[in-house]
Write a structure and sequence with these properties.
The protein is mainly alpha-helical. It is 50% helix and 5% strand. The chain has a domain of 43 residues. β1 and β2 form a beta hairpin.
Length: 86
């Protein structure tokens, strides 16, 4: 059931009062977001993730990614597209 505007306003005022003196940004990040979403009556897990998982690359993907780098210059270089073999 959706919250009324009055309930959202009440929760927002309470939220602002609770975090007005917050000083430790890194330590409070997750709590801040949890409480902010709670103002609107939704769970953080429904709408956001704080961190993305590590992407795993296959050896072929890793090779293709690293092949395009010129490590002496720290810049990308052109790599020809692979040719189809029959």
């Amino acid at each position: 059931m959706p919250l009324s505007w009055n309930e959202i306003r009440r929760r927002a005022v309470q939220f602002a009062q609770e975090f007005k003196d917050a000083r430790r940004e890194n330590a409070e990040t997750h709590t801040f977001y949890n409480e902010l979403f709670n103002v609107f009556g939704i769970s953080r897990r429904r709408v956001a993730s704080f961190e993305d998982g590590v992407m795993r690359l296959s050896p072929g993907q890793r090779s293709a990614l690293l092949e395009g780098l010129d490590w002496t210059q720290g810049q990308m270089r052109r790599v020809r597209a692979p040719q189809a073999t029959l």
